[in-house]
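Aggregate trends can hide what the representation actually does to any particular protein. For completeness, the protein is quoted in full, as a sequence line and a line of structure tokens.
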Amino acid sequence: MKEPWSWRRIIRLVCATPVVMGALLMPGSLVAEPAGKLYTEQITGTLSSSTLDRNADGVPASVSTFSGKSKFGKVDGQSSFEVTAFGAPLNCSGSEVEATLVGTRDVRRFPGHGDMIFLEVSNLVLCLNPLTGNFTLTSEGHFIGGTGRHVGATGDFTGSFTGTILVVDPDGALFGAFSGGVEGTVETP
């Protein structure tokens, strides 16, 4: 008959305790930590003026609608972005005018499962050639939550787009087209 607490069993228990305790107390050892997932997309879409004016400067925000492909499947969505009135270029070529960010929020929807992810741009440079209507836009920002599998999403991204303003009315309302994409890392809890 085995003794329930033989010296040999006590020694094994004493030797194993630091290993088990170390594994339990080490960050990320037995507890799942969020894993970052690479997110990339290529989208095309249209943009037009809206009535939203976050800073009440008389220059309304634009709204874009887009669709394309992403690392998470087919993607479509909308963006509301507002920039300052165009001025002298700081980051653009001398023949372009430049606008800087007032505020933006984007929604990406994945039709394959219906989940959404939300984005907020923190830095944006928009360079426009006023003679041709062609523009480039570069941005940096953050994933700020979502629905379904993207609830609590965080992470950073960069974006790069080109486009053309096709129509501008006398009051400055506009309509145009663009293409480009976003690349970043999405972390979910």
Notes: Helices lie at 7-25. Residues 1-33 form one domain. The two ends are 50 Å apart (CA to CA).
